Amino acid sequence: MNHEPQAPRAVTRRTLIHGAAAVAGMAAVSPILARTVAASAGNQLAATNAFFQSEELAADQVLRLPEGEPVRFDPGVTSGGKGLEMLQNLFEGLVTIDQRDGSLQMGVAEKMEPNADQTEFTFTLRDGVVWSDGTPLTSEDFVWSWRRVLDPATKSEYTSAMYPVKNAQKIVNGEAKLEELGVAAPDPKTVQVTLEGPTPFFPLLAATWTFYPVPRATVEKHGDQWVEAGNMVSNGPYVLTAWEHDQSMTLERNDKYFGEAPKITKGLYTLFADPVAQALVAFEADELDQAQVSGADLERVKADPVLSQQVQVFPRSGTEFIIADTTNKPTDDVRVRQALSMAIERAALADGVLKGEFSAAPTILPDDIPGHNPAAALGEDAAKAKELLAAAGFPDGKGFPQLTLTFTATDSAEKRTAQYLQGVWKQTLGIDVKLDPLEDKAFQDYFDSRKDQPFNLMMSYWGSDWGDPANWHNQLFDSSADFYHSHWKDDEFDKTVRAAVVMADPKERIAQYENAEKILNQDAALIPLYHLNRIYVIKPWVRGIVHYPILGRTWLKYAYIVKH
Amino acid sequence: MRSAYIVRRVLALVPTLFLVYTITFFLMHATPGGPWDTGEKPLPAEVQAQLKAAYGLDKPIWQQYGDYLGKVLHGDFGPSYAQRSRTVADIIGTALPVSLQLAAAATVIAVLVGIPLGVLGAVRHNGPLDYLSGLISMIGISTPAYVVTSLLVLLLASKLRWLPTGGWDGIFSPKAIIPALSLALYPLAVLARYTRTSMLEVLRQDYVRTARAKGIREWVVLMRHCLRNSLLPVITIAGIVLADIATGSFFVETIYQVPGIGRYFVQSISGRDYPVILGTVLLLALVVSLLNLAVDLLYPLLDPRIRVQ
User: Fold this and answer.
1) Which residues are within 8 A (CB) of A411 and not within 5 positions of it... i.e. 6 or more apart?
2) What is the rounded CA–CA span in Å between residue A253 and residue A241?
3) What is the complex's ipTM, to 2 decimals?
4) For residue range A397-426, what is the model confidence (pLDDT) as tens digits?
5) Cβ-Cβ contacts under 8 Å, A446 against chain B
6) pTM attached to this predicted model
7) CA A488 to chain centre
8) B159 in contact with A at a CB cutoff of 8 Å?
């Protein structure tokens, strides 16, 4: 039984693949930019809420949403998490991603020109762009804001987002001065960006929050208090008008915004300690227009005659996987890793154990990322798995040491998955796995220390920051990055992804990434488990809410409320 | 004599708080994980190193202990790591009044309902009213606050829609009802139990029989002759119970979205927000100590036989 609206979801997926591919292609070939991929998110929602005939706008365009109290609320400081949703509604960068289809759109800039080898990007700002207090927004604001991110005094936790910009990493390491950052303002309307190397995907990166401009005068005047309501000046479609800490936040339309005026006049946020676990009850009491559904609530929501009609599933560009220590016995043997992977029945895991909260992941890359390659899958085959384990010297699991699987205890999907894995590996391979759930901060600590300490197996995930395989293969799995501490090293993989990242021909580039994906999956460097989803209940009179697979979150400017 | 006693007791707070600071400081730094990584992804090592340096967390632990102690002695707990725009003093300044209002409301409910309930139980000993009073107390004592809050939200907010599902608008708004009731239930039950037991004992005293024999109205006997004397043990327990209200609102505030001290206490620990952890722990230690002192000072007022020394 599945009460989820199937048709809209299929449309979303297909649309996204086009959208993401278009973006990657566009960025690579270049100057063609502001372009909308024809796909209407409105249509899908209309289909879902077909019983609401009226499309007439309601007089009251106030959207009530749940969030957590923002943590380190400052575009130059936060690495995401609570509060990012508000920042995305309050600010806008040089370019921006259309959340309905993933296409790259011009933001504060009206023109973007890369040089031939994509090592330099020149942005020209729109005429008359101003901050919400009416002061002009100039290219100097970008230079100042980007340098501010790297200034140690800012205490930013996301300086690494700037690494593709020339000298950014050197500044973090104390080897270069702030003024040497690869961004300049030759005149008030021009932002000139110099990169470390050819970076065709830089525009996707420039659309993220770390690259937003922040208002220098306000920041200098109020210090860390500049983000408080009353102090904050912003440049996006909304402004912050009220912030009662740990209670509520109010965003109202920014009259000075250069773009089309959004229909939602006010976003009212209730700040929960844990919005995912706590907002549903408020949604049911009609205090909120939207709430995320956690795995624990999913079955009840699906069985509820009212709530089940309001469920919308938004695929998220991300994958949960097992990380094995490829330099520690016995997972240093590729056959052992392959056996572990092939013994898993992913459909049973996703639909049975996880009740359809997430979708089976045969490969590492999610299907909206170019370079996703179904042929790369290692496959599932219990008999083959047993053979491989026997070939590795452990027939029927005899002599196999007990492995420890470490994961985050508060992640209920990971917990249920770990229990499933323990059972299926025992049953199929005859091996014992000890479960080691850790509190989330303790897990992070454990994870960080695996850089130079041995382990057996860990569970973690990645969600795309931007729709390009470089965000996965180059940033995570290249042996020089080794983001997950698996210590996996494959010369051909490294060579392939390092060549692909700077390749100008988009077709050849994707082919290279498909190849890399195959090496990664066949070698079971990581063992894919499931792709992520976000499941929401949304009131039927609310339209235009989109949670794009990458970063996602609610963007007020696309939403509207119909008469009800 | 009295003031000397108070001064002595207040001075004794200093080593207590110092000990609390020390234990908390080392415990929280020994707990794995740090204030960052609140996004979904681990931070690169060099970024973590840079942040540690910026916050002074790269120094030897003893030096951090001393440096921070120096600041705390000047009343400066510094800014919160998670809410960069607020200092610990800001947070306590807004959260403490919220918790105090809630605690006051819960105390009033607990006293106004719990004590009469206990008296009723004693007077109607082994009657239906006594059993009812016993049942209410039993439920109140054995049900943890987080269960009570969740059940009240489910019933009053979710099913009946009489009250909001969470939030805070001041003590005189409908939003205060569920948290105040949840907080009041346990102390109410305890007060009812102790009042009943102590009342039963007093009712058997000779002077009560004498009073009744003299033909004094039963109401006056109960109120003037019995209740006052039976309250002494109740006051002792009230100190502990009140401390429980002041500190036990962790769950209630977190579940019902009340921005009080309890919520920040929980939030700061799970977020490893060191300055806020220290600020709230020291505050709670101070509140508990002061409440105990207040109880000790109340005794002589009720029982002239007790003298402070």
Assistant:
1) A440
2) 10
3) 0.84
4) 999 999 999 999 988 899 999 999 999 999
5) 32
6) 0.85
7) 24
8) no
